[in-house]
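Let's do one together. I've listed all components of the complex below, 761 residues spread over three lines.
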Amino acid sequence: MTRILFSDKLDNCVAKWRSAGLTVIGPVQEEAISRYAAVEKGTDLSFGTVLPDRSLKELFFPQTEPMTSYTIKKNEIETTDFTPPQGKRIIFGTRACDASGLAIDDPLFGWDYKDEFWFQRRNESVIVTIACTKSDDFCMCTSLKLAPDSTKGADVLLRPIVKNKGWIVEELTERGREAFAIISEYLLESPEPAIPTVIVPEKFNLDTCVAWLQNPENFDSKFWKEISMRCIGCASCTYLCPTCHCFDIQDEGDTYSGIRRKNWDSCSFALFTMHTSGHNPRSTQSARWRQRIMHKFNYFPGKFSVNSCSGCGRCSRQCPVDMGITETLQEISKL
Amino acid sequence: MITQERYRTTVKELLANGSIKMAIGYRLGSTPDRRRPLFIRTSEEADQLVLDSTCMTNLSGYLVTEGLLSDEKKVGIFLRPEGIRSINILAAEYQLNADQIVIFGFDSTGRDVRPLDGRNVGEFSKLLNEIKEHPLQIVKEPLHWRIEKMNAKERFDFWQEEFSRCIKCYACRQACPMCYCRRCIVDSNQPQWINTSSHTLGNFEWNIVRAFHLSGRCVQCGNCDRACPVNIPLRLINQRMANEVLDGFDHFAGLSPTQEPVLASFKKDDTETFIL
Amino acid sequence: MSELKFEPKIVAFVCTYCTYAGADLAGTSRLKYAPNVRIVRLPCTGRISPMFILKALQKGADGVLVSGCHPGDCHFTHGNYHARRRWMVFRALLDFTGISPERVMFSWISAAEGSKFADLINSVTEDIRKLGPFDQYQQLIKETESPATL
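Okay, and this is what the predicted structure of the assembly comes out as:
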């Protein structure tokens, strides 16, 4: 016997969680895009898309975040620190790749300096992953040794049952159990079987690619120039990526007052490495694309023993010139 | 298909006899409905060339890649009429020498692709003038009508809603053949005119500055609109501004490689009804 | 109490040869005009970038006035002709994105038109006062959490 959350009870669950003080967040289909957003009713959630256009990362690491504001007076400088927003949240219906992305970034935000903006939100969020029963041409979690029903980064895993009637509930962590205890009255024992998760074909051999990337000779390979010739140097891949985490600290204001903000930044931009002198160590787009791939599959795992890619495929899906990690690693596998 | 085959042969010939060092075209993408840019330097690469109605990207931005044209050799490029207009503007703004560009023109109606006569940008002036006189009727989408009915307050709210989605990935800028500035206004910080942060005000400022900078230069190739990962209807602003310079100054961007940029020129009798 | 009454904040970008001299004349002629305008003097209207207008709004201005020499009178012969085209396009852009043209105004005022300057400032101030504060823009500024300092 398994415990099942029937979808017609979702409205009640959302209401229950909300009355327990949790903000309920989940995939929402807006007019222009789909994304994870706060909802008031269960019916506002939309589980039809393979993957929301925008990743889960932005709920933990927003595109711009205030840190400190300052006012300079005659004899003193007044500063006010911002703290990360408080409040418990349940994120219902993330995809396995998005949840994995959070787990991948955890060591990065905590290895020497513990980023309070990230961890405050991490500690107050319950992640409920729904296993995928659909995929598209760009999904590649299996190539990254993850899976459509990966539990990485999740507190609860839900497996859909037939006819979208609901989900089998697998609680994974204490935090998940607590959140689902709130709605336990809506969980029913039933023998319904789960729909098998989607089979995502493996697109490249990760080990071969990593070995190639780790070989120092290949750093200067002609391959990089060829593969990235059409890269236009925008940041849609990095900004939609659930694991890309680079940021820039910007001061905005004037001589007398202003604000310090933490903004997303991207290795795709020439300005990312530009020195004040005008010298740019990564002076070409191929060097920037190489950095992105190397960082994800060589440097990051070298430091944290995990690849900085969860296989969501957004980089390829949204690329204006049809590039992406998949193509690059496929080509590397062929070398 | 015939157009594609003919162009493959032409490109091979021109590469073989040294008339061009490279041709920029399209090839199959990662899914059946996608095309991706292709850089043809060899006969084998020419065999990958695909030319059909789904080839939409305006490739002319690649021509201003640093160093590409500095050896004074010629480069071929596949362009729709809008792309040809981009070449004219880039030439008029001294970003390239139009004689170095060999144009493989094409256009499509429905799924049919047809070649355009001519190789040098000057040979297309008749075609471009015709397009100016008889512009393609842009089918007004529901958004057009919605915006037309709005008052200023509602329009402000509408655009703020749209811009609030912006993540400042600058895909619009990078995809645009006209955005070739070495240092974009948002990358400058002395002084820092507009907010670099991606809050709604910063997003609004960015988009309005870009739209202004493109006024009278945009050819509405749609690169920015297609590139935007959060689907901001940038085409609406750019169309509006193109109409503005056409109505106000009879300026149709990219008519010839010697056309004066509209905002770097003036007439003594320009209308000024709005000036107090 | 007057603190409840809305006092518009207006930034005026003016050229030094005509409008600024006109303002000077208004002053030396002891003409009275509304104190709501902050004047920024520039060498020529050709120097007035749309960036300035955006910056003024970013800092919380309720209205912006741009003014220079009459056509034909430019100290640099045609700076104002260039500016005129730019304004026309920029004004249309602002209008399309929902910034009412009544908030961003343009005028020609010569060095001899001290009274026109005083009258214009008064009427512009009254117009903006009627429109009320630019709440929509100020809401955006507020969301940035940065202290606006106009």
